[in-house]
Design goal:
By secondary structure, this protein is of the alpha/beta class. It contains 18 helices and 13 strands. The protein folds into 2 domains: about 30-145 and about 295-365, 3-Layer(aba) Sandwich (D-Maltodextrin-Binding Protein, domain 2); about 150-290 and about 375-410, D-Maltodextrin-Binding Protein, domain 2 (3-Layer(aba) Sandwich). It has helices at about 1-20, 45-60, 75-85, 100-105, 115-120, 125-130, 155-160, 170-185, 195-205, 220-235, 250-255, 305-320, 320-330, 340, 345-350, 355-360, 375-390, 395-410; strands at about 30-35, 60-70, 90-95, 140-145, 150-155, 190, 210, 215, 260-265, 275-280, 290, 295-300, 365.
């Protein structure tokens, strides 16, 4: 009988405890994070795991759960899951993906839970404006890392032919002409036609997207000349748009490509075969080496107030100066936050890499692009514009005209 009473009492207590949890007095709020980082990509997954464990141990109300996703097709998978109500509470993406989430009511307004004045004071005006440029004047993304394009080159080949690091695109063409004729290799490639279009647009000091009229501003004679020039350099085999090894970094590492433009995050993948590489600011069309600024940030999905608040609490923890510094040094990116950039460990981190130093020096010349509805279409149209021009399907003028029409339709 005593044993029966003990078992019965235990069951009653268990039921009461479950009831307490369901009533909110003991239940933790789960926050699910989807990410696509892994160990090979600079240890991002490991750092996220450590950060989640530290956060979970620091309080007893929220439980952060990490779920790794394949990098290929990540954006599409998130979009589909969110649309069907089965997505994560937090995911990491670029600001250009935001407008569709905001318009659909899927992105939480994080200003309800974060100190926006304190957050704004920690980052550059360009980053802040991008975070707020989705059109509804609310905060839907918190930056976690930034990168910019830089110029990578084969130092051995440049020294062999007594070439100077190009400061202008004209100087780059002259270098590539020599390398193409004497080494029978391509002198230059870009890892992204979209980035190259934004570089040309910024260096020409032209409007990318007019946020008032919702129209693009790249249909100009100067921009047309720049696109046409690039296509002609590809045709002359000074530049290349294809790779013998199947990848840009593969050709560069094998000595089959003399230089390229890519973000500073390429550094872990550059393992040159018997030569050293150098890095410099991108060549310029104008007085300043203007480049696009790539802001990847944390986005919280709209749900209930309790879950949104819990998700924002983790983001606040993840982006504090110490953690932002550690995250940047783990994945090989730059911190968006000035207080993190002032930490001694971060400054030492920059000194370990020429790539990061050049990227850091390029930040004053970096520009963000408006994250409006249709911004993703603008990006895809710019890529198609280059593909059509380089492939000789259309002239630069024709391709730009088509891109302008398609972009303006999407923006409106």
């Amino acid at each position: 009988m005593k044993r029966f009473l003990c078992v019965l009492l235990s069951l009653i207590l268990a039921i009461l405890c479950v009831g307490c949890m369901k009533n909110g007095t003991g239940e933790k709020t789960d926050v699910v994070i989807w990410h696509s980082w892994n160990v090979e990509e600079g240890g991002g997954e490991h750092f996220l795991q450590v950060a989640a464990e530290e956060f979970n141990a620091s309080q007893d109300e929220i439980n952060v759960i990490l779920e790794s996703q394949p990098g290929s097709g990540f954006s599409k998978k998130v979009a589909n899951a969110v649309a069907n109500g089965v997505g994560p509470d937090i995911f990491f993406e670029f600001a250009t993906t935001l407008p569709e989430y905001v318009e659909g009511g899927f992105a939480a307004n994080m200003e309800n839970y974060l100190d926006t004045d304190a957050l704004k004071a920690r980052m550059s005006e360009a980053l802040w404006q991008e975070a707020w440029s989705v059109g509804d004047s609310h905060l839907h993304i918190v930056p976690i890392q930034v990168t910019v394009p830089v110029f990578f080159y084969n130092k051995a080949l440049y020294e062999k032919h007594n070439l100077s690091v190009p400061k202008t695109w004209e100087e780059l063409e002259q270098n590539c002409k020599i390398l193409s004729e004497q080494e029978q290799i391509a002198g230059f490639a870009t890892d992204s036609y979209i980035d190259l279009a934004q570089i040309f647009n910024g260096q020409l000091n032209q409007t990318y997207i007019d946020t008032e009229t919702k129209t693009v501003g790249f249909r100009t004679e100067e921009f047309e000349a720049a696109v046409d020039w690039f296509a002609k350099c590809v045709d002359k085999k000074y530049f290349t748009a294809t790779y013998s090894t199947g990848s840009l970094e593969g050709d560069f590492n094998a000595g089959l490509l003399a230089s390229f433009i890519g973000t500073c995050s390429y550094e872990p993948y550059l393992v040159p075969d018997g030569f050293e590489y150098g890095v410099a600011k991108v060549p310029t069309l104008g007085a300043e080496p203007t480049v696009p600024l790539f802001n990847r940030g944390a986005i919280v999905m709209a749900s209930d107030e309790k879950t949104e608040a819990a998700a924002c609490k983790f983001i606040d923890f993840f982006t504090n100066a110490e953690n932002s510094m550690k995250w940047s040094t783990t994945i090989g990116a730059l911190t968006p936050y000035e207080d993190a950039a002032q930490l001694e460990e971060y400054r030492s981190y920059l000194e370990t890499s020429d790539v990061l130093q050049v990227a850091s020096e390029s930040l004053p010349f970096a520009k963000t692009t408006p994250a409006l509805k249709g911004a993703l279409t603008v990006r895809s149209e710019l890529k198609e514009m280059f593909l059509q021009t380089v492939g000789k399907v259309k002239t630069a003028k024709e391709a730009i005209s088509i891109a302008e029409t398609n972009c303006n339709n999407a923006l409106k």
